[in-house]
C-alpha cells in the first residue's frame, strides 16, 4: 500500500482528535443549557482538556518512549474512543470534565505518535510534507469538524457529536491495525532535559510569543458561539455558516503564513500577523451591529491568527536548532497551556465584565505577544 494512503489515514485520525478539542467552542451554549450550568462553567471543558493535553502528553511519551509506536498509537486511540464514549454516555458536567481529562491526554499522544509514524512511512525527502498532512487534519477539524458538530448538536443533541467520534475512532483502530507498519520506539529524552531549555532567555521569549498569541485566540474563540448568538444576535443557521467560513479562512491563513515566511522572513510575518490580529479583534468589537464589517473582520481575524503558525514553528526551531524536537514539544505544551489559560481568562471576563468584553481582552494579549516578538528580534540581532 502506498505511503500516501497511510499518511492520509493518520491525517484523518488527527482530524478526529482536533474535532474533539475544538468542537466544544461550537456547542458551548447547548452544553450549558443541557447540563444546567453557566457558560463559564461549560467553558472550563476547554481548560480541562488543554491542561490534560499539556501536562499528560509529555509524561506519557517519556514513560512509553521505548514502546513500539504502532502499539502505542493503538492504545492511545483505544483510550480516546473510551473517553468519547464516556462523554456520550455519562450525565452531568462533573463526569463530562473527567472524560475530557482522559480525552486530552490520549489525544495528545495520538497526535505526537501519528507525526512520528508519518515521518517513518513517508518516502525519503517527503518527511516535511507528511508532517504537514497530519497537521492539516487538525486544521480541517476547524473547517469541517466544528460546524458539522454544531449542525449535529442542533439537529439531535450535543452528546451525539462524541458518540460519532467514538464510532469513527473504532474504525480508525481497525485501519491502523491492518495498514500501518510497525515502528520502533525511540531514545528516552528526560523531562529534565526537555525543560532545561526554558532557562535560556531566547527560548523563553520565543515560547512566550506562542503563549500570548494563543491566549488571545482562546479567549475569543472559546466563547465565539455565545458571543455571536447573544452579543451579535445571529441565528443558528447564520452561525453555522460563519463557523464554516472561519474554518476556511484558517486554512488560507496557514497556507499564506508558510508562503510569506519563505518570502519575507519569520519576524516580519509574525509582526504583520499579530498586528492584523489585534486590529481585527478591535474592529469586531465595533462591528457588533454592522454585519458586513463584522463578517469581514472575523475572516481577517481567522486568517491572521492561523498565518502565525508556520513562522512561529520556525521561530522556536531556530532558537535551538540542535534541539528541534524538544523545542517543538515545548511549543506544543505551551500552546495547550495557553488554550487552557485563555478559556479560563475568557470565563472570568464573561462572568465579571461582559460577553462583549472578550474581544478587548483578547486584543490586549495580542499586544503582549507583539512586544515579545520585538524583544525576540532584538535578542536575535545581537
Task: Explain what you see.
Helix 4 runs antiparallel to helix 5. The protein is built from 15 helices and no strands. With 382 residues, it is an all-alpha fold.
Structural class: mainly alpha
Question: How does the major sheet shape up?
Answer: none
Please, how many helices? 15
**What percentage of residues falls in helices of 4 or more residues?**
over 70%
Our Rg estimate from Cα atoms comes to 20 Å
Indicate the proportion of strand residues.
under 5%
Low-confidence parts lasting 5 or more residues at pLDDT below 50?
none
> Superfamily at the CATH H level of the largest domain?
MFS general substrate transporter like domains
Report the span from N to C terminus: 50 Å
- CATH class of the largest domain equals Mainly Alpha
- The CATH architecture of the largest domain would be Up-down Bundle
Large-scale geometry: globular
Query: SSE order in H/E notation?
Result: HHHHHHHHHHHHHHH
Topology:
Layout: H1 3-35, H2 39-63, H3 69-89, H4 93-121, H5 127-155, H6 159-179, H7 191-196, H8 201-221, H9 224-231, H10 236-264, H11 266-286, H12 291-307, H13 309-319, H14 324-352, H15 358-381
Amino acid at each position: 500500500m502506498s505511503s500516501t494512503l497511510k499518511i492520509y489515514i493518520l491525517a484523518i485520525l488527527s482530524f478526529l482528535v482536533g474535532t474533539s478539542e475544538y468542537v466544544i467552542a461550537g456547542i458551548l451554549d447547548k452544553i450549558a443549557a443541557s447540563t444546567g450550568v453557566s457558560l463559564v462553567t461549560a467553558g472550563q471543558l476547554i481548560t480541562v482538556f488543554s491542561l490534560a493535553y499539556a501536562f499528560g502528553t509529555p509524561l506519557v511519551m517519556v514513560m512509553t518512549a521505548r514502546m513500539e509506536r504502532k502499539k502505542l498509537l493503538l492504545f492511545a486511540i483505544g483510550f480516546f474512543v473510551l473517553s468519547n464514549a464516556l462523554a456520550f454516555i455519562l450525565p452531568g458536567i462533573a463526569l463530562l470534565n473527567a472524560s475530557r481529562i482522559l480525552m486530552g491526554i490520549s489525544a495528545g499522544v495520538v497526535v505526537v505518535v501519528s507525526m512520528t509514524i508519518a515521518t517513518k512511512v513517508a518516502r525519503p525527502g517527503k518527511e516535511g510534507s507528511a508532517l504537514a498532512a497530519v497537521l492539516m487534519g487538525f486544521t480541517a477539524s476547524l473547517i469541517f469538524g466544528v460546524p458539522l458538530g454544531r449542525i449535529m448538536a442542533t439537529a439531535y443533541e450535543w452528546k451525539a457529536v462524541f458518540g460519532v467520534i467514538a464510532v469513527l475512532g473504532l474504525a480508525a483502530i481497525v485501519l491502523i491495525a491492518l495498514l500501518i507498519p510497525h515502528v520502533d520506539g525511540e531514545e528516552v529524552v528526560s523531562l529534565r532535559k526537555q525543560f532545561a531549555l526554558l532557562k535560556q532567555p531566547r527560548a523563553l521569549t520565543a515560547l512566550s510569543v506562542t503563549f500570548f498569541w494563543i491566549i488571545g485566540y482562546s479567549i475569543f474563540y472559546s466563547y465565539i458561539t455565545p458571543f455571536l448568538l447573544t452579543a451579535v444576535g445571529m441565528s443558528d443557521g447564520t452561525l453555522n455558516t460563519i463557523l464554516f467560513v472561519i474554518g476556511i479562512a484558517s486554512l488560507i491563513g496557514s497556507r499564506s503564513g508558510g508562503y510569506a515566511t519563505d518570502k519575507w522572513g519569520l519576524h516580519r510575518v509574525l509582526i504583520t500577523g499579530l498586528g492584523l490580529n489585534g486590529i481585527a479583534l478591535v474592529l469586531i468589537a465595533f462591528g457588533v451591529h454592522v454585519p458586513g464589517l463584522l463578517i469581514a473582520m472575523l475572516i481577517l481575524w481567522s486568517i491572521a491568527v492561523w498565518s502565525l503558525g508556520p513562522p512561529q514553528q520556525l521561530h522556536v526551531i531556530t532558537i535551538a536548532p540542535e534541539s528541534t524536537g524538544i523545542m517543538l514539544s515545548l511549543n506544543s505544551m505551551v500552546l495547550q497551556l495557553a488554550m487552557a489559560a485563555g478559556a479560563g481568562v475568557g470565563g472570568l471576563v464573561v462572568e465579571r465584565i461582559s460577553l462583549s468584553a472578550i474581544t478587548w481582552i483578547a486584543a490586549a494579549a495580542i499586544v503582549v505577544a507583539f512586544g515579545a516578538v520585538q524583544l525576540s528580534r532584538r535578542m536575535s540581532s545581537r
